[in-house]
Amino acid sequence: MLFEKTFMAIDLHPEISLKVLQGSKYRYAEEHGFTIDWAYQNITPIYPPDYIAQELKISTNQSILRVANTTYTPEGIVFDYTELYLNTEVYQLNIIKRR
User: Fold this and answer.
1) Which of 31, 45, 74, 86 could staple 91 via S-S, CB 3.0–4.6 A?
2) What are the structural domains of the chain?
3) What is the tens place of the pLDDT at every residue in 43-92?
4) What is the pTM of this model?
């Protein structure tokens, strides 16, 4: 199970809605003329705050992974910033890296 928080600049995405965010952000990007070029990710083990532990149905003493992801366009504009909180007992994180 995971918990996700996404931040998107309202001036770049004035028509954004919860319905859009529940779908594919990348499909939204394509439909609105954005090209996703690259992302910076920071993966950190943490102990979850109460509200995330409750959502994940775990103890605040159980470590989880926090994945902070900033996605950029080719022009260097931030498309979105997302934080994923992953319960490592039920969620596997796989990373593919290309040169």
Assistant:
1) 86
2) 2-86 (3.40.1410.10)
3) 999 999 999 999 999 999 999 999 999 999 999 999 999 999 999 898 88
4) 0.82
